[in-house]
Amino acid sequence: MEAQNLDLLLPRIFAQQEKIPTHELHVLVVDDNSPDETQAVVAQLSTKYPRLHLLTGEKKGLGVAYQRGIAHALAELRPDLIFEMDADLQHDPALLPQFIHLCNEGYTLVIGSRFAPGGATPDFPRYRKFLSHLGNRLARFAGGLPALRDCTSGYRCIKADLLARCDLHHLGSRGYAFQTALLSELFHHGARATEIPIIFSDRIHGRSKLSPRDYFEFLLTLVKLRLSAKRRRSSPGGSPAG
């Protein structure tokens, strides 16, 4: 159902351009040949928004789609900053200027945090809030991450030169666990991070795609990150950057 969301989301994103004097907004929609007419919607909207781009490919999982999208953006669009943002209307485009302002102030990673002071997940049932907080604790421990409140957020702004130093292909996460693996990689390469609060409301169209397989992959990714963090600490000069 994300095609319906794009009709609402993309105009809201490009409307923020007038508040961002330092950067030119481009949007890359990564679509895994979904049957919901996403490509037709993007083609139609691109006549109004010439800085709207589409990248298609086979469906191999969210993590693979992120890798493909980031690689394409770095190679073809040559950006200064790269945003990660879901197309389910749960990530408010009105925050884009704030993300960019913080990057202009020297941060190389800005995370939209559901759990920072001022953030909220008003529509989460208790069990999902518990799982989210538990997952974040485990991610910080396994990945040797600093005291971040939201390690699994999908709303982020990252300096492109920091991403270019990361080896995304070795992360090995095909699903939602990619976000946690990427965060560990970013900090290994010296990310300077901050969080801003976001209100993460329930989606208007569509439904969550989290499956038991995603939870299993998340746990497996945590084990890999823990082993990797230990190897980095034990190698000469290999203490994690923070």
What does this structure look like?
- By secondary structure, the protein is an alpha/beta fold.
- The protein has one domain (2-231): Spore Coat Polysaccharide Biosynthesis Protein SpsA, Chain A, CATH 3.90.550.10.
- The protein is built from eight helices and six strands; from the N terminus they run H-E-H-E-H-E-H-E-H-E-H-H-E-H.
- The strands form two sheets. The chain has a four-stranded mixed β-sheet, sandwiched between helices. A two-stranded parallel sheet has the order 1-2.
- Helix 2 (38-46) links the parallel strand 1 and strand 2.
- Helix 1 runs parallel beside helix 2 and helix 7 packs parallel to helix 8.
Q: CATH topology, which one?
A: Spore Coat Polysaccharide Biosynthesis Protein SpsA, Chain A
Oligomer: single chain
The CATH C-level class name:
Alpha Beta
List low-pLDDT spans.
Answer: none
**Which descriptor suits the 3D outline?**
globular
Number of strands: 6
Structural class: alpha/beta
Number of helices: 8
Strand content: 5-15%
